[in-house]
Write a structure and sequence with these properties.
Its main location: other. The protein is mainly alpha-helical. 87% of the residues lie in helices and 0% in strands. The two termini are 36 Å apart.
């Protein structure tokens, strides 16, 4: 079995990384490496070659002995050929006698108890030695195979644990990243929701304040209009009472007062008519009234000689001036209220348009965020699919390599078993040949004994001798 020593790393220390480790590389500590090397016998190619050379040497010795026997027989044959100068019958007779003598000597030597015992001990010792060598060799091979398998199991377990650790780290990293991303997205959504709620509350407060301000202004306008109406009514009543008193007072006095009263009534009618017109006619009306008032004042100053008439005239002028001021204030108030209402409507319209634009922007932003989330989720899914495919390919490669190693180990065990069977078969063949040779020797001995006149009954023991049993002793 050849062990790849590159699995245990190089003996020299490297100063830095020479490159990235392979996907299936196993990294162990120096102490673990020393422990594995101390508890494991690493058989190198030289030791395997040495064992093979020793086995071949044993076979060579056996073949050498067989060749020596064959050479000796060839030498005898050659010697017999060299002695062919004698007669053929003589040569054959001598050769037969020599062969029978050698066989008889060999048989006698082999049948000696001491020789048999020694040969038996030698045979048993040789058999036991061979068996012990076979057992030791088998045990050593099994130990080496077990150590190799244990080492490979350890390396595979280390690779498996490292791969599991890497998977767990990658899963934890992805899970942590997902939690962080989900937290960031949730915080963004909460911030947007809080901002939207604050903006809605602010807009509601602004609208409420605006409505309250409008209601306040309307209430103030109503109160001012009511007060103004009361004041106008009171002023009008005062003017009417003053006019009535003046008319009654003047009716009896002088006829000219009627003309003045008519002029005043005409002026009052014109004044009321002019009050209903717009602001653009106010200046002309005011000029006309000033002119008429001046003419009337001149006429009245010329006509009136007492203080009562002057007081009534001053009262009418004061009431007219107050009424003009009230009308101007009402006109200014209405103009201001109109402008305020237009500004409020314009502001509300702008707020509504701004709200629509913000809602459109928020909808677009939410849609974009949703699309980004979907795109990110698809990207993560694609990355996980690629990672799973890569891991699947690595697992397939690991399984294929493991199956190849298992098949190689199975072939090695099959080869060892076949080798043991071949050795046993060769040994049985050798024993069979040896037994045939002994049986031939025994038959020759029996024939020789019969020729010598031995009693055949005495030959039953040697004839019934179990050569196989003796051979197996």
């Amino acid at each position: 079995m050849v062990v790849d020593e590159s699995l245990f790393g190089r003996k020299t220390k490297t100063k830095g990384r020479g490159g990235a480790l392979p996907a299936r590389a196993a990294v162990i500590s120096a102490a673990e490496l020393r422990r594995i090397q101390g508890s494991t016998r690493i058989i190198t190619a030289a030791e395997i070659q040495k064992d093979k050379d020793e086995l071949e040497a044993i076979h060579a010795v056996k073949h050498k002995a067989a060749r020596a026997r064959k050479d000796r027989m060839r030498a005898l044959a050659a010697a017999s050929k060299n002695k062919a100068k004698k007669s053929t019958m003589e040569l054959e007779k001598e050769a037969r006698k020599e062969t029978i003598r050698q066989m008889a000597d060999k048989t006698l030597d082999e049948n000696l108890d001491l020789v048999k015992y020694l040969r038996g001990i030698g045979a048993r010792a040789a058999a036991f030695t061979i068996r012990d060598q076979q057992l030791n060799e088998r045990g050593a091979k099994e130990a080496r195979q077990k150590a190799y398998e244990d080492r490979m199991d350890l390396l595979m377990e280390v690779d498996r644990l490292r791969d599991l650790k890497q998977r767990e780290d990658a899963d934890n990293l992805r899970r942590k990243k997902r939690v962080e991303d989900r937290k960031v997205i949730t915080e963004q959504i909460d911030a947007i929701r809080r901002k939207r709620i604050l903006e809605e509350e602010q807009r509601e407060q602004e609208s409420k304040a605006m409505l309250e301000l409008i209601a306040k202004y309307e209430k103030e306008d109503q109160e001012a209009a009511a007060i103004q109406k009361v004041e106008q009514e009171r002023a009008r009543m005062e003017v009417m009472e003053a006019n009535k008193a003046s008319i009654e007072r003047k009716h009896a006095e002088k006829q000219r007062d009627r003309d003045e009263e008519e002029a005043i009534l005409l002026y009052q009618a014109r004044k009321d008519e002019l009050m209903r017109k717009r602001e653009q006619e106010e200046k002309e009306i005011q000029d006309e009234k000033n002119r008429l008032a001046k003419a009337m004042l001149d006429s009245q100053e010329k006509i009136m000689d007492n203080s009562a008439e002057l007081d009534a005239l001053r009262a009418r002028r004061y009431a007219e001036a107050k009424e003009r001021a009230a009308r101007e204030a009402v006109l200014k108030k209405e103009t201001w209220r109109k402008n305020l209402a237009e500004s409020v409507h314009k502001t509300l319209g702008d707020q509504i348009e701004d709200k629509k634009r913000r809602q459109a922007r928020e909808a677009a932003l939410q849609e974009r965020e949703h699309n980004e989330c979907l795109r990110y989720a698809n990207k993560v899914q694609d990355r996980e699919a690629i990672e799973n495919e890569r891991k699947r390919q690595i697992n397939e490669e690991f399984k294929r390599t493991l199956n190849e190693q298992i098949a190689a180990a199975r072939r090695g065990r099959t080869d060892k078993f076949q080798q043991a069977q071949d050795e046993g078969r060769a040994m049985r063949n050798e024993f069979a040949m040896e037994r045939a040779k002994l049986e031939a020797i025994r038959d020759a001995m029996i024939e020789d004994m019969l020729k010598r006149g031995y009693n055949p009954n005495y030959l039953n023991e040697i004839r019934n001798c179990d050569i196989q049993k003796i051979q197996m002793r």
